[in-house]
Structures are given as structure tokens and as C-alpha cells.
Amino acid sequence: MAEAKGLPADELRAISDRVLQFSEADHCRVRINSGWRGYTRVATNRITSAGGSDSTSVNITSIFGKRVASVGTNRLDDSDLLNAVRRSEQMARLVPENPEYLPELGPQRYQSNAAYYPETGELEPATRAEAAAIAIDRANTAGQIVSSYMDVRAGISSIGTSNGLFGSHSSTAVAYTLTSRSPDGLQSGWAGDEANNWNNIESQRIADDAVRKCRDWRKTPLDPGEYTVILEPTAMGMLMLRMMNSFNRRTADEGRSYFSNPNGGNRIGEQLFDERVSFWSDPAFVDSETAPFNSVGQPLSRQSWVENGRLVNLACSRFWAQRLGVEALPGPSNFIMQGGDNSLEEMIASTKKGVLLTRFWYIRGLNPRIISYTGLSRDGTFLIEDGKIARPVTNFRFNQSLVSMLENVEMVGPAVRVAASENSSVNTAIVVPPVKASGFNLSSVSDA
Known about the structure:
- This protein is of the alpha+beta class.
- It has helices at 9-22, 78-94, 118-121, 125-142, 203-216, 233-243, 249-253, 318-324, 344-349, 402-407; strands at 27-43, 46-64, 67-73, 145-161, 166-181, 188-195, 225-231, 279-281, 303-307, 310-311, 335-337, 353-367, 372-385, 388-392, 395-401, 409-412, 416-418, 430-432, 435-446.
- It folds into 2 domains: 9-213, PmbA/TldD superfamily (PmbA/TldD fold, 2-Layer Sandwich); 219-448, no CATH class.
- It is globular and about 70 Å long.
- The termini are far apart.
- The model has no long low-confidence stretch (mean pLDDT 97).
């Protein structure tokens, strides 16, 4: 078996220790990322570029009192590391105090997450090209034009502090997204996968789904309004990628979020969503594994946020926890929604009139008090009538409270990991099901 990408963990520890020895600050934190990143890009039915690179970067944070500053370098010689340490110290002496800074953590115990998959770490350019060729051949046969991007990462990260903390974690990840268009540009279809294990990227299905949706989607008019919608997993995941950051105790306690109690404090313990809605994060979740620590070295473990529609926890920073006299709770490193037993076909068959949504684009926040967002549907929007796909329809802009959507859930399918990012690169691991929900606000027609 080939060696894992990135420097060995003991070398990262040696670099971290050298930086900490150079430090003259009150506190110092060292974060290192070392690994390889490869890509394959397709445009106009041909591979236009492919490559890969190895890199190691060191981020050094120096602290004097409550003055904090960071400097990054990719030079690993002692003289270069020393220069980076001195620059971070110089900056730290000049910046204003951060009143919320707390001293660096000491030694921690981290769970072991097997997140490095050799199938991904040893992925060859030829294998990526074979996957791309499947879509190119499929598009050529259908008379369509495909573009795609494959992002592959493998490496190791570590964190160390002047108070004796050290942890490291190896991981792999891959994202593959594909758009197919008609030659006149009026039809498009999209499909994609994201995984830690390359073997879970279904290249044939991605090609088939994108080409099929492009073939079937040629927009026809449909008035905007509130509709029952069936959100395919990618569409649901793109919304949940945004929602995961709403589970924050401080914003709730300060009256700035939906989870704020009008009488003060927060709404932990209240029934807020449909009982089929449960959210949690778990750095050991299979094929969605993450590092067992966050950016300041706090240990991460399985954590529930919503159980059967009831809010059970909110992330709480060390500063806010100290102020409240409670235990700190790090935020989610991935986001998982409980799946159900309803298939996409069953959802469609049960719908008198509704809209099937493949994915979204250009999602932006509106109002954190109701967790509302706006964005555009893309690459496969279909009208459902009398339990069947009736016709493709125009794209829409939506303006929707995710709270309202999760209150009006009607059916839930099996959960899968999705490519939830808008930029086609590896992103936070999101595992969600397809969801049928009523009263979704497709507020205006989008001609784009």
C-alpha cells in the first residue's frame, strides 16, 4: 500500500514543537495542514485540465495578554519558521486586545476517526479520466454538452499549543459534480456526489442523472406562489449547510436568532419542528468523518442538536460558556439529518400538485430571526400533477424560512451525503434525505 499523503504525524509534531520552542509570547498555537490536492476539469465534452500538488502550510498564532495575531508560512526551515514566529509576535503586540480571548487549551483526549481512505488517497489521474469519460460518452450519445469538476484531497492536519496540547488527524475527500446542457443552452441537468471514499462516487449514475434531467427539462411557464415541494437531497443539503450555523447559543441568548426566547435566554427543550426532524453531528460518521478537534483544539464527539423536532442543544463557545458558568460545546463539524422510509417515487405519487427541485444556486441569508434564505432553483425544476411529473417548468427565486419548511414536513426519504457546496469543491460533510414539505415560497420567476 502506498504511503498516506502529507507529512507523517511525528514530523508535524516536530515542526509544531520547534515553533513552540521559538515562541516568546505568553501563549502560542500552531496549526499545520499537509497533503495533496488533485483535480480534473471537463468542458465542451473533453478534459481540459488536470493536475495535482503537494503542500504543507503552518499557521502560527501568538498571544500577549489578550492581543492575538496569526501568520502563515509554507517554509519549514528553522530560520523561516523563526521569522514567521517573530512576525506573528510583532503583529500581536500591535493589534487591539480581544476581550473574549481565553488561554490556550492543555492536553486533550481525542477519539480516533478512521477518515483516510486509500481508495481516495491513491486515486490516479487515469481513474479520474475514466470517470470523466463516462459522462463525455453519455453526453455525446445524447447530443449534449457536459462540464464537470472533480476535486480530490488527501492529507493530515494537526494542532499544538504552548500549554501542551497536540492532536493530528488524517483524512481524504472527493467531490464530483457535473452539468449537462443542450447545444442551444436552453436545457440543463445537474448531478453530483461527495464522499471521503472514492468508491462511493457513482460516476455512471452522475452521468445518467445529469443527461436525463437535461433531456427532460425545457422550461415552460408556471406562476410563482406557495407550493408543496419535493426537495431532492442536494437541494435539501444546500439549505441545511446554511442552517447548521444557526445552532448557536450566544446569538440565541442575545435575542438575535430564531432560537431566542422572547422572555430571555433560549428555547432549548422546546418543540420547534415536525417530529420527523432530527439533526446531529458526529466526527466518526461513516464516509463523512471529520477531525476529532476544532480550530482551537476542543474535542469533538457525537452531538445531537434536534431530536424529533425538539431543540436539545446549541453550540456554546468557551467565552460564552465561562460567562454563563456552563460547559462549552463546540459547533458541528458535519451535519446529519435523520432519514425516513419514503422513496422519491412515493413522494411524487402522493402529490396532487407540487414542484420537484433538484438544487439551488446563489443562496443568501435574509433574516436570522426566522432562518430565512433566498436563492434560485437550477438544473431541473419540474411540475408534479396528480402524482406524476407533468412537465418541466421555469426556474424560480425562493424566499423561504427554513423554520417554516421544517414545520411543514410531510415525507422524508433515506439520508445520503450530498455535494452541498455551490463551488463544486469538497466542503463540509452534509448528510440529508429528500424531503416533501408544504407551503414553500417560490416567490418569483427566474429567467436565468
